[in-house]
């Protein structure tokens, strides 16, 4: 059994009320990784709630209704995400599957796989293959 990752909610970190609360109709088939979304992974491995589970994001035009976004805080063109941050996102992905927010066989993508951008940075993009779990 996997350990549930604690998420700091929007209310706990003082976020403003969301302007849009359109919800996804089905579990997300894709997870799009960004660098500075719906959840944010801090350098200290804390997970912060952005829009939250099941809410349609505005992260990747044309892909927002079948995906959820997770952002790592920082610039990962030259720096690698910490092992703790990578562990946190794996736990969050497992939580998303177990709670039915992600399709059990979701596709893990970097923002650059869907748009012309450097995001999520060279080092984070290279780490994506190690973030997926069976």
From TrEMBL:
According to UniProt, the name of this protein is: Peptidoglycan recognition protein 5
* Domain (N-acetylmuramoyl-L-alanine amidase): residue spans on this chain: 2-121
Tell me a Gene Ontology molecular-function term this record carries.
Answer: zinc ion binding
Listed InterPro entries? Amidase/PGRP_sf, Amidase_domain, PGRP, PGRP_domain_met/bac
The chain positions of domain Peptidoglycan recognition protein family read 5-115
Q: State the Pfam families in the record.
A: Amidase_2
In its UniProt entry, the species of origin is given as Oncorhynchus tshawytscha (Chinook salmon)
- GO biological process terms held by the UniProt record: peptidoglycan catabolic process
The Swiss-Prot or TrEMBL record describes its family as follows: Belongs to the N-acetylmuramoyl-L-alanine amidase 2 family.
